[in-house]
Amino acid sequence: MTIFNPMSLEGRTILVTGATSGIGRATAVYVSKLGARVVASGRNEERLNETLAMLDGEGHLGRLFDLAALDGIVPWLKALCADVGPLNGIAHCAAVQATRPIQAINPAFVSDVLLQNLGAALMLAQGFRLKACHGAPASLVYVSSSAALKTAPGNVVYAASKGGIISAVKGLGVELVRDGVRVNAVAPAMIDTPMTEQFRAILSEENFKRVIDMHPLGLGEPDDVAASIAFLLADTAKWITGSILCVDGGFLA
Hints:
Elements (H helix, E strand, L loop, with lengths): L12 E5 L4 H12 L3 E6 L2 H10 L6 E4 L5 H15 L2 E6 L14 H22 L5 E10 L12 H20 L5 E8 L5 H8 L3 H9 L8 H12 L10 E4 L6
Parallel strand pairs: 1-2, 1-4, 2-3, 4-5, 5-6, 6-7
């Protein structure tokens, strides 16, 4: 008897950015278990090789690239696809998380956060829509944040960058239909990743516990988000575009 797996990614090539840690690494591992050939991207060669060693199956590739180099994203994606073939999906997990109150920001800080969190996302969409860069089916999944929907003082710039992704998804989800590309995003709340440990370091234990208590289902795991990304990449979401999937343990409820 044939086993029915509606989330199978057999025969598909998926690019995962930010694959060196956290949600990106978990996503790369998760989609490999669903049969995808993974192109794992990141800035640290040692951690990238660690991720590649975790993947199920064969044929996976690692590519070093700094997405802060906006001018190079489209040429890099075109060269990548010329080498490995068209992609069926991109899970864009790379991001910077920077918490700073409004009185402490400066133009360089604003530019850096917006460039890396929003600018890179837009340039990936520009490259992925090219006929040479995507196959059929094709799905682009961004990682936004619950901070874009329910932010807090001191986190305004980061929240704005992630809110920009939500707005972009609404437009791109419709604009790229003619190119055969679906565009969606997940909006996670607090996930147990190295970024969360950095956040924890600047809070008292009491305040950190208060943040965790705002999540009725508790602190999330990277696999919780990876599973949602995989759902949006697979045919399970073939009639979904321009949508934001909240993966937040009840935070926004």
